[in-house]
UniProtKB/TrEMBL annotation:
Source species of the chain: Lentimicrobium saccharophilum
Coiled coil location: none
This protein's GO CC annotations: plasma membrane
TM stretches of this protein: 41-63, 143-168, 188-209
Subcellular location, record wording: Cell membrane; Membrane
Stretches assigned to the MotA/TolQ/ExbB proton channel domain: 103-222
PANTHER family named in the record: PROTEIN TOLQ, TOLQ-RELATED
Record-linked InterPro entries: ExbB/TolQ_transport, MotA_ExbB_proton_chnl
Homology family: Belongs to the exbB/tolQ family.
Top-rank taxon: Bacteria
Chief site of localization: membrane
Protein name: Biopolymer transport protein ExbB/TolQ
Biological process terms in GO annotation: protein import
Amino acid sequence: MISGILLQITQPAGAIADTLVSGALPVEAAGEIKLSIWELALKGGWIMLPLALMSLFAVYIFIERYIIINRASREENNFMNNIRDFIHNGRIDSALSLCKNNHSPIARMIEKGIIRIGKPLNDVNAAIENVGKLEVAKLEKNIAGLATVAGAAPMIGFLGTVIGMVRAFYDMSMAGNNIDIGLLSGGIYQAMITTVAGLIVGIIAYICYNILVARVEKVVFILEARATEFIDLLHEPAS
């Protein structure tokens, strides 16, 4: 009885020993299959090329616009106070020189208002608003391209998905009864990889677009505040 129990206990151990001696490895010890980003991109097919170009375009536009918008949002300390002192003292030329030396949308907008001093305030206000709109339009240059990438990249990825599935079903139809998983892997790879790539590019472009829009809105708020401050300045009596 005891020998029978010992036989049952030692038999799995012997099987494990035989497995180790024979060189077979457990599943956990098997080597992992690793794929680089380049290999995944190649398996995605030609659809990955426009997605790669769109991602580069989105990154370039975001960095270039972010730097310009960030520079436009900066204000020189006491700029409006100096403009107020110059105008109240009748030093219009000094106020214009200050604006020309300050390369910012605010300075260009105030410069236009100073040039129009002496005309009706409605004309001065209209001139300032026109310059402000032009400056905002310059800041918004190419930002719409990010919105286009955010919307088009997932659609292109889905196009790659459809093409990959069509390829997989075509291979199945041509294989007949000799269907091999290797025949389907190429189409399924393309279908999945292009979807993931399109979504990644679209999400990144969408986030970048919203960041830039928020920055532009901040600049618009500053421009409106300084335009109102300048018009109020013209209503103030000279000291």
